[in-house]
Amino acid sequence: MKIVASDAWEAARQVAATDLPPNAHVMVVSNCFTALAGLLWSASYILMTLKAFKDKSYGMPIYSLCLNITWEVVYGFVYKSDLFNQIVIAQWLVVDVFLLVATIRFGPSAWSNTPLVAKNLGWIILVACIVGLWGHLALAAVLVPIIGRRVVFFTAWPLQVMIGVGSLGQIMSRGNTKGHSWNIWWTRALGTLAAACCFYWRAYFWPERFGYALNAIGAYIMFVSHLFDLAYPFVFLAVRREETRALHERDSSRNTSSHGQKVQ
Would the CA dihedral through 112, 113, 115, 120 be positive or negative? Predict the structure, then answer.
């Protein structure tokens, strides 16, 4: 049993290197979309880290953070792609490490109602990362010999879906927007859109190689990721309004109580 399908991956890389695009723009334009997605996602994660330190909370669901980091390790350093994509993935990993530090530092306060989680959050994240790394390696070992480099697409996009639905669930279950902001949302959403445009462009102009991005599964995971990104601002606004209303009620109650004490 092989842990890493290195031979199959190298064979897939050789095929990709000799596969000539049908025109001059298909890879240039799509790589520009990839670079834009990388910058926007990195900006979103940086903003998320800064917001975590400001609010003393965290914004990325823990399971998403662990799966993201381990995916970046696997497809940035184990199943290496070309230098361009390695640089993009490496910058995500660096930013995610800072986000991980913020989550470990401020995560316990978000789990104050669940002491068992709060006291052991660091260990939980460590175990989640180990399990996530094992899972990514296992999937790659099985799928690379079958679908080659397409494994990158079919393992990365579900993570975007998880971040989208996890972010919605997080603010709804908390009842507050700590760790979240409009800027975090639009940079992440536009990053996802840019990444999708990369594959839309490639699938349209080079369907022989990238048509998989618009097959039933590919179209589904990309569409669903956009759906959750579009739903987020409405949920965020609703939670923010309730948060503001509760704050005003609390301030009014304090003012009334203070006034009553003065009268006495």
Answer: negative
- φ/ψ region of 118 (left if φ > 0, alpha if ψ in -120 to 50, else beta) reads alpha
**Which tokens go with 153?**
């697409």
How does pLDDT run across 6-35, given as a tens digit for each residue?
Answer: 999 999 988 888 888 999 899 999 999 999
Structure tokens of 84?
A: 């361009």
The span from the CA of 173 to the CA of 55, in Å, is 17
Task: Dump the DSSP string for 101-159.
Answer: HHHHHHHHHHTTT-HHHHHTHHHHHHHHHHHHHHHHHHHHHHHHHHHTTHHHHHHHHHH
Residues written for the chain: 264
CA angle at residue 227 from 149 to 103, to 5 degrees?
Answer: 75
Torsion sign, CA atoms 167, 170, 172, 175: negative
Q: Which residues contact 68 (CB under 8 A, 6 or more apart)?
A: 60, 92, 96, 159, 163
Q: How many CB atoms lie within 10 A of CB 200?
A: 18
Each residue of 235-252: pLDDT tens digit? 999 999 998 888 887 777
Cα angle: 99, vertex 63, 139; to 5 degrees? 115
Q: Which residue has the tokens 């990369």?
A: 198
**pTM for the model:** 0.90
d(C-alpha 133, C-alpha 115), whole Å: 27
Place of tokens 């991956």: 9
